[in-house]
Design goal:
about 70 residues, alpha+beta, three-stranded antiparallel β-sheet, 5 strands, about 30% strand
């Protein structure tokens, strides 16, 4: 059975000129409930692992947050 996590990323500008920007990843946390509410985490190890049958729910969450 396929499984996946919901991930979003964005760049944060470096405070030092000439340094690369920091890339920040955000995941839906594994302490979340599939319906409402859910929380976010920056640690991939704490991300909720969705099963294939939860695909519609994750598409809805992603569209609400402007994720792809």
């Amino acid at each position: 059975m396929a499984s996946f996590i919901d991930c979003s990323s964005h760049m944060k500008a470096s405070k030092v000129k000439g340094d690369f920007p920091e890339i920040i990843y955000t995941y839906i946390s594994n302490d979340s409930h599939i319906g409402w509410p859910y929380s976010l985490t920056a640690d991939c190890n704490d991300a909720y692992v969705f099963d294939k049958f939860e695909w519609i729910v994750t598409e809805f969450i992603a569209s609400c947050w402007g994720r792809r």
